[in-house]
Amino acid sequence: MTSPFDPADVTWSRVSTRLTAARLIPATITFAVPIVVGVVLALILSPWFWLLAGASAGLLAWTAIVVPRQVRAIGYAEREDDLLIRKGILFRSLTVVPYGRMQYVDVEAGPLDRKLGLAKVQLHTASVGTDAQIPGLSPEEAARLRDRLASRGEARLAGL
């Protein structure tokens, strides 16, 4: 039996595992501040501040467990008439973007992404609510996908 999130005739492409580091580094920095503040205040003022440090450390540990699983759940597949993007573990989502509905395709990379050799492809369609993005691609794959999607979109638009 096939799942609505895993069509039978689809071969999924995965994103880079370096996306895990790109998501864990900012989380570590974010949680490190309350951990350090909690430890310092617990040593100086009151042992109650250990709760702040402990809760932040617990959230960081949970993030370190969840993020790699989330990254492994991201995939995309190019089909004849559309692009499929899936993501999520607990709340799964499958986005189908018909090539004929694409208006333009962006490739983005922030400073950390560039340092880790990653890029994100963002698809813009006629629908405002479409969340069609593929993070964690190598810059070469992002450029190839951008060019391929743009040419397929133009071909489908010309056929209308």
Automatic annotation (TrEMBL):
Start and end residues of each YdbS-like PH domain: 72-149
Keyword Transmembrane helix on entry: yes
InterPro entries listed in its UniProt record: YdbS-like_PH
Bilayer-crossing regions: 21-42, 48-67
Keyword Transmembrane helix attributed: yes
Keywords: Membrane, Transmembrane, Transmembrane helix
Name of protein: YdbS-like PH domain-containing protein
Species annotation: Myceligenerans xiligouense
